[in-house]
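Example 3.2
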Amino acid sequence: MAGKLRQLVCSLRAKVHAPGQILPSRTTEQNQHAQAVRTTLGSLASSCRTWPPRLVVLAIAFLSTFPVSPPAIANGGQVRIANHPIGPYEVTVFTSPVPLQTGTVDVSVLLQRREDRAIVDNAEIILTITPANGGPSQRYPVTREQATNKLYYAAEFSIDQPGPYRMELAIRAPEGAGAVAFDATVERATSSVWRSWWLWGAVAVTTIPLLWWLFGGASRGPGQVRKERR
């Protein structure tokens, strides 16, 4: 529908005043009216030629902001354990990135008092990771110092091999202690270069102006002066 409308506008403009056409003698009022019509249709016709390239540029610019961005390593992410009771506490465990991939991994723990949902301080938490297919276990302290959001306890570490893992958290707080465990599968990560935000940002910054120049800025030539016979 929009394409037919643009074709109609362009054809009307051509009929009103084709390039190089000399208008017949007419009154000043008629000339002013015709000039206004030509100006309006000329503006619409120019727009009809520039709409498709502009839409292409905008679409490319929009899509260029979404290429396989690197998963953010931060507290939170996928919930692995939710509100699990340990003595007077409740523990919720998150992992990031989503999905888990080889490379840097974050395990975050939210420890709350069950009765009033208050954040529990001064807890000691140890994370033990064991490959399900066999291999040595690794132990990591889960601390406030490693957490970006200080409401959490967190551990940030590296996993080199993909596969299933068993993750266990031993928690000791002033009023109770216990343990929780869960299974997680770590996928093989793609190349870190192709997941780098700065790479795709540089591509977007250099590509958008180039496409705009090719399709938008270079498509218009200098205006031509038309003479009218009165």
